[in-house]
Amino acid sequence: MTAWLRAGVVLLAVLCARSASADADAAQPWVATNGNGDRGWLVVTRESGRESDDPIVELVHVPPRGAGESRIGDLVLRPAVLRLRDMPNAIASVGDRAFMVFGVEDGRRSVLSIRAIATLPGQFAYEPRGRSRVERSIDSDGELVGFTGALGTAWALLAGDTGPELLRLDDEGWAEAELPAAEFDAITLAGDDDSLLIITQTSAWCLDRDGVWSSAFAWSDDASIDGATVAGGELFTWSTHGFGDQGREVVISRASANGLREIATIEADAAAVVAMAREGRLM
After folding, report:
1. 108-113: long-range contacts at Cβ-Cβ below 8 A with a sequence spacing of 24 or more?
2. What separation in angstroms does the CA of 160 have from each of 50, 126, 163?
3. Where is mean pLDDT largest: 7-16, 61-70, 251-260, 272-281?
4. Each residue of 123-150: pLDDT tens digit?
5. What are phi and psi of 68, to 5 degrees?
6. Cα 159 to chain centroid, rounded
7. Per DSSP, what are the bridge partners of residue 249?
8. C-alpha torsion sign, points 113, 94, 139, 237
9. What pTM did the predictor assign?
10. Exposed, middle or buried: residue 5 (CB in 10 Å: 0-12, 13-18, 19+)?
11. What is the average pLDDT score of the chain?
12. Taking every pair of C-alpha atoms in the chain, what is the biggest distance, in angstroms?
């Protein structure tokens, strides 16, 4: 723990069990924070209380510290903002908005969003009220590899028959963006207000504000990375490992010029880890 505090970051992992109703094609599906790390969003499920009904899927807002109404440890949670008809494949946060992308239907993926607006101290209004905004759909049936907020907008990385495709949300919809001039097998996307990162099993490619790709980090190919997040300009990764009847653990590491350095281990079946750097924590 002291190593995290010296770095100005405390780790909070959101432990989760993957829903059978959601497609398993996103590495970081149900938790997201915005680019400056001051707020986040969670998608959670709970039992309906009736045996014949499917679990209830809800979107929860994680506002800046001190603005919420209930606490779980160091995590401030608002009551459920929105009830969803289906489990999203992934969510992303950009500024005060959450974006949710869903499974393929008729060759496209629907995308919804909602905005959190601070009104009074500790109070938020959500637009559209009681529902979500329909965004332009992603017209692709490729596997969703990554979905994140970075450089002021939402990004999606898909794997199709002709190779990877990187899409950026702009005023006209989802536009194809340039990929690094190198072959890679992507695991997921990560990013913040200053950069977008494509994470592979051996490296991270970084797109800066000037639209230039560069190789940011490299590590050994035995890392078995499941996901990654950016916090205060630093890259963190996590991976899960099984030990037969003894259960599973999640290993969280920090990337540097010398590779990956393990900083935490959590006993859990699965986890997603994202950054709330302004709040001094990873979630």
Report:
1. 108/137, 108/138, 108/139, 108/140, 108/141, 109/137, 109/138, 109/140, 109/144, 110/134, 110/137, 111/135, 111/136, 111/137, 111/138, 111/154, 111/169, 112/88
2. 40, 35, 5
3. 251-260
4. 889 999 989 999 999 999 999 999 999 9
5. -90, -175
6. 18
7. 241, 267
8. negative
9. 0.84
10. exposed
11. 79
12. 54
Tokens (6 digits) for 197: 């990162």
pLDDT in tens, 19-33: 434 444 543 456 777
Q: How many Cα atoms within 13 Å fall on the side-chain side of residue 77? A: 16
Q: Which two tokens stand for residue 35?
A: 């680019």
Q: Which residue has the tokens 């794997």?
A: 159
